Records
---
Amino acid sequence: MEVQSLEPKRCYRALRARDPRFDGRFFTAVVSTGIFCRPTCPARTPKFDNCAFYPSAASAHAAGFRPCLRCRPEVAPGLAGWRGTANTVRRALALITEGALAEGSVDALAERLGVSSRHLRRLFDEQIGTSPSDVARAHRLLFAKKLLSETTLPVSEVAFAAGFGSVRRFNTVIKNTYGRAPRELRNGSLDPDPRIRLKLPFKPPYDWGAMLHYLRGRAIDGMEVVEGETYRRSFESGIVEISPGGDGFLWGALELADTHAMASIVGRLRRLFDLDADIVRIEQHLASSPLLSAVVARRPGLRVPGAWDGFETAIRAILGQQITVEAARQLAGKLVARYGTPLARPGAGLVCAFPRPEALLGNDVGTLGMPASRARTISALSEAVIADPDFLAPVSDLEGNLKRLQSLPGVGPWTAHYIAIRVLGETDAFPASDVGLLRGATKGGRRPAPEELAALAEAWRPWRAYAAQHLWMKDTDDDE
């Protein structure tokens, strides 16, 4: 819901009804109290004349309103105001979530996105209602409130984990915003789990079974485990565990050697599990297609799995070229066993993290049992990422991203589109020549040619990546 599309009377009707469909789409500021709330807030509905409506928590906060302690805007699905935004703003919001403005500038963020800083500020003003810096400040504050409410971390660790430079500054900001000291915002009934447990909200529905199916089939031995309804994985700084929670959130349990990077880790998890998708809007669009209507109805809430780490996922895509998912999984297991980084504190079944680019560049990965050309592609990607750590960051548009990826030897259209979907979050990438997609698009016993499928997919823009996920799952379901 963009700034210009906020119709006060429509927003007020949704507020009076406490309509969950609008949760995260706008926030209500009450001028008589100075507080802003989610549309689902259980408090008594204020008078219409006392309400002002904002497209994001950040814009409400920038206007001088403080977050409600009852409905907790920090747990609204998605980062403030992401719904309906253009690709550039959506990418910027994801990078802000992962800490892009914690030490970097708006100018540097704009350069990463391939636009001018002036253009980026204009887009934010039009679509979010405030500046990138205001979004970062609001995100930092709301994330701190989330940590105070949901974890038993010491206040000092919460301050630094949320990106505050000092505990004194943190205490001042919290007191000025909420009128209370940080310790007064704590939840005294929390289970003293040694792990850091957090709620990861999303907009329902969510097909958790399909997500687990995807992760289970690709779980790398020693680095990932899927047991029952739970996914666990290791990385250099610790271990994360994700499991289903109540309606509208997943549970995250984190074991971290250093809590300073927690905001970035939560951002990674949101990207991996595609928690910020406006899934109802996407499915309404795809369901209008005769080919996809039944497929979408079969799996409501199907998400596009993202990437925990861009380099890792890109390497896994290269390993999977022209072989089965199981063969690629086994090959990745060999790679991790030989070149992975051992964990300082191993967990059950988790002993190492994915190899760094330096480890793969300086060794002959071809001895693991892959074609020499594929080994050269892995070396080329490793070299590119070492030379430019932002090599796998999105640039201005899909075509630009695909062109950059295909500049690497051994990366063709299929691999480039796959990486664009999983790593770059390109919602419109679509590898039309993929055999699984062609099988999934079979109708009346006839499988389309790649060019036919590409033509059909034009009607699915800008959500072709979600159409691809539905077709892949249909192909899988048909085989079972």
---
Amino acid sequence: MFSLFLKLTIVSILSLSSNLAAADEIGRIKKELFSLLERIEALEAENKQLRAVTDGYASSKKITVTGDLRYRYEDIKTQGKPDRERSRVRARISGVAKATKDIELGIGLASGGSDPLSTNQTLGSGGSSKGVVLDLAYFSWELGNGFSVLGGKFKNVFYRPEKNTMMWDFDYNPEGLAVIYYKAPIFINTGFNWLESDSKVDDPIAMLGLQIGYAAEIQSSALTIGAGFYDFPVKGREVFRGDNDDFFGNSFLCTDTEALLGCTYNHDYEEIEVFAHLRTSLANQPTTFYADYVHNRGANDQNKGLEVGLIFGKASEPASWQIGYSYRDLEADAVFGAVSDSDVGGGGTDVKGHVLKGQFAINKTWKLVLTYFDNKKEMSGKNQNYDRFQIDTELKF
């Protein structure tokens, strides 16, 4: 725009110069003005190139930082044990960088310790410092045509209806490789997740998983259905973390029952999953129904699990709310307990019962959440009552 204005100015000056007496003076003025114009045009072209390089660099190196903080009070009543009250915090922060147009890098830190199913830290011990761990460390490579590859420690790629935790705890971030495909309405998720990769510790072993789903809009509703298969070849293996008898509800045998020595899994976990998830509207409120069923082919009995749920309303905008209900019946060897939910029934399998949850959005980044668990821990027919009440205040950025 500036160069066009300058050209018009030069033309005007040249037309006026015809009235000048000295022809050599006119030539000199012409030469200087055209030289000045050439320099300005060169500078404009150079600036344009610099802007393009800067914009490209900024977009390719864009970093997004997110995080959240949760303060929790909970009261736990387990039949046959003293009542328990405690306050806990959870803090997480992660950054995602676009290394190139098709490669993404993610790193996340969280409160907690070595437990892969919890990033909570219990307050107390005289105000002692709390632990921080590496929660995420992964790359994501977009191959094109709907395919992506992930490697490292990443968010669970397997779809969970309404993010239910019957098969996978919410905090569980698997380690290994994953390949995902999404081209509406079809999605396919695959995982090669290490349970142990160091041969110095034990023979390397990994979970292999495949999930196929269909997600479609039906008028004003959204329906997702699908199925999956997950293979945990753990029969005859000892626990991967914790004490010798930490099988999280799964059945096991020990060579020395009293001393709890030589304890190993009784079964492999060859889990077949079928799920459905429907988002619709009732009474002018967002409403969700879901069901998730699993059957372990690796065990002959105590090998089935079912969760169904309903959510009414949606706590997203300021002063909005939602309430939810779910029922779970998870037999002892239905799923691999070491990666299953850590809250219902105190965690793991061999549990059934109800969960009621209410949420209120104070604003877009702050929620108040109340959750009540009315469960029974089966424990070979003992039906131990388990009640748990949580009050959470959650903030995110």
---
Amino acid sequence: MDKIVRLWTRYSGIYIKGLGGTLWMSAVTICIGTLLGIFVALLRMSKWKLLRAVADVYVEIVRGTPALLQLYFFWLVVPKVVHFPISDTQCIVLGLIFNAGAYISEIIRAGLQAVDKGQWEAARSLGLAERNVMSRIIMPQAIKNILPALCNEFITTIKGTSLASVFFINELMTSYKTVNSATFLAVQSLCIAGFIYLLLNVTLSRLVKLLERRLQSSDR
């Protein structure tokens, strides 16, 4: 324990910098991944077979291959495909978004399909456009139903950013590698990174429970 305290005292700046990298990558991945997930979920519920097929293939590719393989693909292929400079960090974030979007789409699709079909019919009978039915009636109800699963996926996404350390992108596990290479105290430096991850995800879980209680109280 004494070594952990001394390690934190000396290298806290590196860990804090890594935490900043983890937070911003997680925020970008969650925000854009959620938008992508909503889009893919709507495609999978589309009346057009081609659109459903494209969305199905995307989801199956993500679910059927390891996340690390997907990150390697984006890291190796994207710089050769795009016609402008792109950094390793940007490639990895795109890979994380690609991965998260598929899982989030499944959660959102399940939530949308769980809403009583009578809600759709009642809204249409009132003359509401499809876009308004989805945004004002169906989606708010679906979000309440899927909030726990969605937030669990957000926590998984935060932990998934640790894969970026393979490419030495600035985040918590990269900070662990940096401190370990300087001190050769693998267990102690790993414990610090693990504690930060635990504190971050426990805090997020508490906030989610608070949000759930408020949503439940608003329904009464």
